[in-house]
Specification:
- The protein is an all-alpha fold and 202 residues long.
- The protein has a domain at 1-95.
- Helices cover 67% and strands 0% of the residues.
- The radius of gyration is 18 Å and the shape is elongated.
């Protein structure tokens, strides 16, 4: 599971080539060893990485007159930031893989290209805009885990702080029932933001 989590984190990050390699490797692992793998939430992983690839391969084969029994799979467009982050939304509710995806997302939100930054930010905001308070509380807990684990890693911590600032300024975490879950996150947020002079929390 740890290998899959690492690849999902890489697939969620900001460099197009890294995303493509990580996505291709995940597809290879899941497709070629599908009957041997013992992974949590394997059906969800197959829904994202295997089933669409098989359907795409069938469509290409049909267009070229290839018999269905000879169809295998094909690589999906993981270099495309919009496609990738939309596919990964399904994993944000996962008990096993959500934190890896979220950490990759927030690193991308501090990305080096406008398209990647926009795609990752939009995916996270889209999720939060529709999420129930219970799911938002869980996301805050994941943010707290990421902050605590990366206090000395500016490459991760600075985008996390920036992303949290965007989330709170947009009132996506303003639900009254989130106060208890938000308190430890905001405390870490203030401490780290103050020490780096990045953003300020009202």
């Amino acid at each position: 599971m740890a290998v899959v989590q690492l690849m999902l984190k890489q697939l969620s990050e900001k460099i197009d080539k890294v995303r493509q390699i990580a996505g291709n490797q995940l597809q290879d692992i899941l497709y070629r060893a599908k009957d041997k793998l013992d992974l949590p939430e394997k059906d969800l992983l197959f829904l994202i990485f295997v089933d669409p690839a098989i359907e795409e391969a069938k469509a290409v084969a049909a267009a070229n007159g290839v018999a269905k029994e000879k169809v295998g799979t094909c690589y999906l467009p993981w270099r495309n930031a919009d496609y990738t982050y939309k596919q990964l939304i399904a994993l944000v509710d996962s008990e096993s893989y959500a934190e890896a995806v979220l950490e990759g997302w927030v690193i991308s939100a501090g990305g080096i290209t406008e398209s990647t930054l926009r795609a990752s930010s939009n995916s996270l905001i889209q999720y939060l805009a529709q999420a129930a308070p219970k799911k938002k509380a869980r996301i805050l807990g994941l943010f707290l885990n990421i902050i605590k684990r990366n206090r000395k890693t500016d490459r991760v911590l600075v985008p996390v702080i920036t992303t949290l600032g965007t989330v709170y300024q947009g009132n996506y975490m303003s639900d009254p029932g989130l106060a208890q879950s938000a308190a430890p996150v905001l405390q870490c947020f203030r401490e780290e933001a103050r020490s780096r002079n990045i953003v300020k929390v009202p």
